[in-house]
Amino acid sequence: MTIGIIGSGGLGSNVARALAKKGITATISTRRGPASLAPLISELGPFINAGTTEEAASADVVLVAVRWIDLGEALSNLPAWNGRIVIDGTNPVEFLKPDSPDMNDTSNPLAAYGIKAIDLGGKYSSEVFCEFVPGARVVKALNHLDVNVLAQPDVSGGQRVQFYSGDDAAAKAKVRKILEAIGYFPVDLGSLAVGGRLAELPFGSLAATNFVKI
Ligand SMILES: NC(=O)c1ccc[n+]([C@@H]2O[C@H](COP(=O)([O-])OP(=O)(O)OC[C@H]3O[C@@H](n4cnc5c(N)ncnc54)[C@H](OP(=O)(O)O)[C@@H]3O)[C@@H](O)[C@H]2O)c1
Predict the structure, then answer these.
(1) % the chain with pLDDT above 70
(2) pLDDT digit string (tens) for 54-76?
(3) Pocket test for ligand 1, best of 6, 64, 67, 91 (most atoms within 8 A of CB)
(4) Which domain CATH number covers 194?
(5) CB 34 near ligand 1, within 6 Å
(6) pTM for this predicted structure
(7) How far is CA 92 from CA 66, 73, 121, 174, 207, in A?
């Protein structure tokens, strides 16, 4: 089973770091092209390869780790998904520009965190996300924790809990195996409509909760 990661920022690079620690191979891409990933590849060692976004998107399991506003561009002109598994690691938030007036917007309860919720018209985020990857089996995972803890699955004498949700049992089972291989304690939250909502930032009631299974 091959793994691809589209996006090599906070989320993509830390998942790659977590995979590399366990000797699990993956291909990671960025908007700026594979050559720009040389420092990350040199840090992570031989298990993580830099590729084009098309190459990363050709894997059996593909983590999408780009900002919400970049989904359209990142996921266009890619090979057909044909039932392959896509992990939705995104959250529907806009990152505010430091020093912009938006940072002082008192109507935005998230301004202090430098983010703003994106209005999805009452839809849950994976419902919208699925429209960008027609024909894929989408599993939502790896989106609910601060990325800086992802590469430390073993913590406080236990395993860090990772929520996942999806509508295809076989796809969920494969993602669960990957989460287990990294060392997390995966917890199935059910369907995308139920679990996706619970774990999505910024307003899901389980978003950003950092549980440890002892
Ligand atoms: N930050 C967190 O704590 C956190 C936690 C959980 C989930 N998330 C979610 O994870 C997603 C990514 O967040 P992040 O913090 O990792 O953002 P980030 O640090 O800004 O990284 C975004 C990455 O996406 C890449 N990208 C953008 N457009 C692309 C394209 N067309 N093709 C290929 N790659 C493209 C960027 O490449 P370039 O650098 O070359 O532009 C960059 O590597 C977001 O949806 C966010 O809500 C974030």
Answers:
(1) 100
(2) 999 999 999 999 999 999 999 99
(3) 67
(4) 3.40.50.720
(5) no
(6) 0.98
(7) 11, 16, 12, 25, 12
